[in-house]
């Protein structure tokens, strides 16, 4: 839990981060350094390898947040100093040695050096902690599991082992706080399957290992490119290709499944391309919103929860939309299994994410983040909210009043009047999640997408009516 970790960090800053403690400690024990501590979680800057560009960026952020800009005007400097003193008073300011400790840290960072001085109480970057493992590490259990598995953090454990081996007086103390939050891993098996294009699967050559996405009706003609060509004879894939193969992998994790009873008569279904695309937008947006809501409610990093969804809309049976969420950590961190018990809060939070923003479809204040970039174009808060309303209360999207409809129609009316192709056709704007009735000679049913993204197509449909 991130809040817990930052509370602990603030406490360590207060207790052993200050000059007074260092003076007492070094004079009373003849120690040649002060005890080091550091927070090592998903929020510790920064993941991956140390890179000059990232160091510069981090240095700039620290300069902006923690130092007074000597070139700024007096008034701004006063405000910056006030802010810094405020942060210090609530222990939200990194505990480095002496008045200019943080400045030294930033200057080192600009020179790509991640090495604290013996008198720095707090280590700030992951690389400082990896290079000089501190006496006290504050972390959470999911990060701890990563640290125990990854090569990147091996030095922390090797150094600790060396230190433990050096003297029988050296002890390792592990403190578990808020242990009741840890549910362990229930260890459900999750199977993720890629069924290829239109569920045709993949063609895989059993001889060379090459594979391709299967297309229907290819009559045993393959376009498989051969891997590892340099050291092997060319493969003709002759009689060695297995077809219709689904690719998948299975892993253990905690999972939470949300099953939404859907109405494929009144709401868009998988009937045509437009309906399909609207359904995809609505479900992707709501799924992403729930994922964010879960991470906020549980106070965990966005990336600790993953998931997906699938429609189960088959003729002759009740349509459902299944959304699943699982812990990103292999074997699970126990988060997903908590979702069911806090579902009301998660839904409330999701609702406020979808309603409390002023953007038109999505923005970085509500849904967009670095990791879901490929969906930014897709997200639509209105559609997500319409689906949430239906899922939660069985409520169909509200119809638009006359003035809203008129507003929506402006771009189409403009095209029509420029083209001079006025017809006696009435328009009705339907919320996008609702299935539209069929158009006829005198009536055209449109949704907001028809009047924005798909306007040219709508105009042509109108002309051909
Ligand atoms: Zn082959
Ligand atoms: Zn927004």
Descriptive labels:
three-stranded parallel beta sheet; binds zinc ion; 14 helices; 13 strands; three-stranded antiparallel beta sheet; alpha/beta; 14% strand; 465 residues
Radius of gyration over alpha carbons? 29 Å
Structural class category:
alpha/beta
Termini separation: 59 Å
Number of strands: 13
Biggest sheet descriptor: 3 strands, parallel
Q: Taking strands numbered 1, 2, ... along the chain, how are they ordered across the largest sheet? A: 2-1-3
The structural domain count equals 4
Q: Low-confidence stretches at least 5 residues in length (pLDDT < 50)?
A: none
Helix content: 25-40%
- List the total number of helices: 14
Small-molecule binders: zinc ion
Give the overall pLDDT as a whole number. 89
Beta-strand proportion:
5-15%
Order of helices and strands: HHEHHHEHEHHEEEEEEHEEHHHHEEH
Shape: globular
General description of the model:
- The relative contact order is 0.08.
- This protein has four domains: 2-181, no CATH class; 196-245; 252-393; 402-463, no CATH class.
- The strands form five sheets. The chain has a three-stranded parallel beta sheet.
- The longest helix is centred in the middle third of the chain and has 26 residues, at 273-298.
- It has helices at 2-16, 19-29, 52-66, 74-89, 101-110, 126-131, 141-149, 154-166, 273-298, 336-339, 343-355, 381-393, 402-419, 455-463; strands spanning 37-39, 122-123, 136-138, 188-194, 202-205, 211-213, 241-245, 247-253, 255-261, 305-312, 320-327, 426-429, 443-446.
- It contains 14 helices and 13 strands.
- The chain is α/β, with parallel strands linked by helices and 465 residues long.
- α3 (52-66) packs antiparallel against α5 (101-110), α9 (273-298) packs across α11 and α11 packs antiparallel against α12 (381-393).
- The mean pLDDT is 89.
- One zinc ion (ZN) binds next to loops.
């Amino acid at each position: 839990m991130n809040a817990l970790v930052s509370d602990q960090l603030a406490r360590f800053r207060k207790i052993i981060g200050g000059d007074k403690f260092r003076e007492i400690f070094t004079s009373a024990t003849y120690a040649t350094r002060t005890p080091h501590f550091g927070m090592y979680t998903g929020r510790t800057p920064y993941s991956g390898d140390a890179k000059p560009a990232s160091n510069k960026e981090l240095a700039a952020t620290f300069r902006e947040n923690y130092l007074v800009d000597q070139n700024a005007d007096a008034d701004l400097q006063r405000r910056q100093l006030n802010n810094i003193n405020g942060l210090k008073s609530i222990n939200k300011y990194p505990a480095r040695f002496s008045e200019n400790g943080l400045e030294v840290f930033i200057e080192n960072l600009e020179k790509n050096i991640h090495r604290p001085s013996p008198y720095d109480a707090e280590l700030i970057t992951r690389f400082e902690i990896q290079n000089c493992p501190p006496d006290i590490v504050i972390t959470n259990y999911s990060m701890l599991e990563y640290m125990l598995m990854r090569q990147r953090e091996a030095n922390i454990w090797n150094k600790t082992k060396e230190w433990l081996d050096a003297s029988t007086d050296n002890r390792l103390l592990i403190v578990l706080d808020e242990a009741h939050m840890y549910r362990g891993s229930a260890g459900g098996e999750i199977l993720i399957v890629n069924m290829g294009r239109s569920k045709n699967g993949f063609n895989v050559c059993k001889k060379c290992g090459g594979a391709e996405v299967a297309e229907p009706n290819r009559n045993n003609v393959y376009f498989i490119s051969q891997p590892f060509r340099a050291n092997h004879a060319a493969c003709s894939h002759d009689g060695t290709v297995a077809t219709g193969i689904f690719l998948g992998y299975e892993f253990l994790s905690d999972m939470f499944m949300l099953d939404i009873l859907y109405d494929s008569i009144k709401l868009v279904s998988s009937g045509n391309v437009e309906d399909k695309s609207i359904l995809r937008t609505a479900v992707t947006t709501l799924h992403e919103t729930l994922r964010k809501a879960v991470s906020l409610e549980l106070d965990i990093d966005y990336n600790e929860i993953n998931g997906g969804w699938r429609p189960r809309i088959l003729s002759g049976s009740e349509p459902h939309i299944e959304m699943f969420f699982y812990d990103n950590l292999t074997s699970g961190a126990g988060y997903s299994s908590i979702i069911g018990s806090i579902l009301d809060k998660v839904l409330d939070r999701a609702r406020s994410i979808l309603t409390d923003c002023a953007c038109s479809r999505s923005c970085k204040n509500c849904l967009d983040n670095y990791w879901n970039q490929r969906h930014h174009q897709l997200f639509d808060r209105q559609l997500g909210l319409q689906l949430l309303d239906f899922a939660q209360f069985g409520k169909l999207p509200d119809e638009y009043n006359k003035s809203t409809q008129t507003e929506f129609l402006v771009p189409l009316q403009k095209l029509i009047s420029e083209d001079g192709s006025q017809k006696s056709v009435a328009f009705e704007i339907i919320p996008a999640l609702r299935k539209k009735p069929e158009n006829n000679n005198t009536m055209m049913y449109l949704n907001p997408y028809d009047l924005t993204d798909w306007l040219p197509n709508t105009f042509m449909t109108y002309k051909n009516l």
